[in-house]
Design a protein that fits this description.
The chain is an alpha/beta fold and about 475 residues long. About 35% of the residues lie in helices and about 20% in strands. The structure holds adenosine-5'-diphosphate and magnesium ion.
């Protein structure tokens, strides 16, 4: 972990700018080489005119011109003077972050009191808040991190920040001072989990302690500055909440609960962010508590409701290209761990073959997700994955494997209004000739869009009883016939 001094200085990559008397915009130059911790230009400069300063630090690669608002200017000033004045050695020994924040808050408040600052009370609070965030946290991103209603934080370079809230993406009026400032915060985020981003490893994908996933990619790979994508662990959604928010109906839940209890193999299909993982998590509540579950993921995000869960995670190769462990290896290993169920967070490649073989050889009741646009597309993708895993298997044999292993495909989609809906629950019935036949049981029928952009439609039973009804019955699950009748 970086020292507090470094952390403090890490967010002041540009020379502190002071207002000049004529009120002209400040010029600050940065060479934009992104030295990782962003503290390359932190020298305390003697007062100089902007032109002199520019001449000193100018490099032909990049120049950044910033006109700061009076409040921003004050923040920059305060930050610098705070660093000069605070006893960093003492602060560094404060392990408790709340206490540290309080100390900084008091120092800032003191400071502001001793100045004749033209700030309103609200602006003052804002300055205090910002500086506390900068010293202890994630700078301009901190408030978003603290807001549990925000699911994604997307930073496209220092001036372009978007958040997703309740399924809607919007741009927010905050920004980093420059690339180096953003780099410093990225560094702080990824170093918490023992990773780094710099010229030699310009891309990083990591999981934060709270389960959020973070990806950073920096120049020159990202053309317009460092890009940071954080997919938060939104508030966990229980199955009844999914019913309440209209993602599916209670009847559909009853059917899916039966499928999980009766150990049918269920695949959840959908696009990125459509809610596959969320639905899988929610459905896991129906796995009997007596079972031993092994989960396999690329970046662990499943939060199963069971007690008896063994979580496995794949590993990317190290810097020398060694040590990679792929999902396929983990599926094979999981089979030797006496699992009652194996849950693959998302099938993406050759592990599809091992997973299907496991399903076909007694490890029933698997749950998994796949990136696909329809149940039919999901099967086609599995087929392609298996072909990659074993090119010598005849297509018909592959399809037979799929048809006998998979019982249910649940399609979920993110609608244009940001809501998620289970658009189809489809049964994989059998083979007809060379084709896998499928039978839809529930669907979402979309009827249009309201004036305010809401998607209008309804869930409906198609009107057939699934052929696996008998298997449900054997497992002691009898669903009323009315559940499946079309209205
Ligand atoms: N049914 C839902 N209703 C509302 N929000 C949802 C729903 N499902 C998922 N979300 C939110 O959407 C985001 C992406 O969900 P996730 O399950 O990770 O998608 P996927 O696995 O398909 O990529 C999360 O922030 C999650 O909280
Ligand atoms: Mg997912």
């Amino acid at each position: 972990m970086a020292s507090l001094r470094d952390r403090l200085l890490g967010v002041t990559p540009t020379p502190p700018a002071t207002s000049n008397s004529d009120g002209a915009p400040e010029l600050a130059a940065s060479n934009g080489t992104g030295n990782g911790n962003g503290n390359g230009a932190r020298g305390r400069m003697a007062p100089a005119t902007p032109q002199e300063r520019l001449a000193k630090t100018f490099t032909p690669r990049r120049i950044e011109i910033e006109a700061l608002s009076p409040v921003d200017q004050l923040k920059v000033d305060l930050h610098r003077r705070l660093v000069e004045r605070l006893d960093l050695e003492v602060l560094e020994r404060i392990a408790d972050s709340t206490q540290l924040a309080t100390q900084i808050r008091n120092a800032v408040a003191d400071f502001l009191r001793s100045e004749a600052t033209p700030l309103t009370q609200a602006e003052r609070e804002d300055v205090i808040e910002q500086i506390v965030y900068e010293v202890t946290g994630l700078g301009p991103l901190e408030p978003f991190f603290r807001d549990p209603t925000i699911s994604d934080i997307l930073v496209n370079g220092p001036k372009d920040i978007y958040i997703e809230r309740h399924g809607r993406l919007s741009r927010v009026p905050v920004s980093f001072r420059n690339d180096a400032h953003l780099m410093a915060i990225i560094d702080r985020i990824v170093s918490r989990v023992g990773r780094r981003v710099d010229e030699s490893s310009p891309m990083v994908d990591a999981r934060l302690p709270d389960g959020s996933r973070v990806n950073a990619i920096i120049p020159p790979l990202a053309i317009d500055g460092p890009v940071l994508s954080i997919r938060r662990f939104g508030a966990e959604l229980a199955i009844n909440q999914l019913v309440d928010n209209g993602s599916l109906t209670q009847e559909m839940v009853d059917l899916l609960a039966g499928c999980v209890q009766a150990r049918l193999n269920v695949m959840i299909s959908g696009g990125t962010g459509s809610g596959k993982t969320t639905l899988l998590n929610a459905l896991s509540v129906f796995i009997p508590a007596t079972e031993r579950v092994v989960t396999i993921e690329d970046a662990a995000e499943l939060r199963l409701q069971q007690e008896h869960v063994v979580r496995l995670e794949t590993r990317p190769p190290n810097a020398e290209g060694k040590g990679q462990v792929v999902a396929r290896d983990l599926v094979r290993n999981a089979l030797r761990m006496r699992p009652d169920r194996i849950i693959v967070g998302e099938v993406r490649g050759p592990e599809a073959l091992d997973m299907l073989q496991a399903m076909n050889t007694g490890h029933e009741g698997s749950l998994t997700t796949i990136h696909a646009n329809s149940p039919r597309d999901a099967l086609a993708r599995v087929e392609t994955m298996i072909q990659f895993a074993n090119t010598s298997l005849p297509l018909r044999a592959i399809r037979e494997q799929i048809a006998s292993a998979l019982e249910v495909v649940v399609q979920i989609a993110r609608m244009s209004d940001g809501t998620r809906r289970v658009t189809s629950i489809t049964e994989v019935t059998s083979m007809e000739g060379d084709i896998i036949s499928m039978q839809e049981i529930f669907r979402y029928r979309r009827r249009g869009i309201s004036a305010d952009g809401q998607v209008i439609g309804s869930f409906e039973a198609v009107g057939v009883r699934p052929t696996f009804t008998e298997r449900l019955h054997v497992a002691g699950i009898d669903l009323p016939a009315s559940l499946f009748s079309a209205v």
